[in-house]
Amino acid sequence: MKRAFVVGSGAGGATVAKELQGAFEVAVLEAGKAFSPLSMGLGAMEKIKRTGLLFDERQMSLVFPTLRIRKTPDMVLVKGIGLGGTTTIATGNAVRMDRDLRAIGIDLDAEFEEIYDEIPISAAHQKRWHKSTRRLYEICREMDLDPQPMPKMGEYDKCIGCGRCIFGCPQGVKWDSRRFLQTAVERGARVITGCRVERVMIENGRATGVVAQHGWARRFHPADLVVLAAGGFGTPVILQNSAIPCEPGLFVDPVLCVATEWKDAGQHREIEMPFAVQREHFILSPYFDYVSFFYNRAWRYRAKDTLGIMIKLADSSTGSIAQREVRKTLTAEDRQRLGEAVELARGILCRFGAREEDLFLGTVNAGHPGGMLPLTEREAASFHHDRLPANLYVADATLLPRSLGNPPILTIIAMAKRVSRMCRLQE
Ligand SMILES: Cc1cc2nc3c(=O)[nH]c(=O)nc-3n(C[C@H](O)[C@H](O)[C@H](O)COP(=O)(O)OP(=O)(O)OC[C@H]3O[C@@H](n4cnc5c(N)ncnc54)[C@H](O)[C@@H]3O)c2cc1C
Ligand code: SF4
Question: Are the CB atoms for 87 and 166 separated by under 8 Å?
Answer without folding.
Answer: no
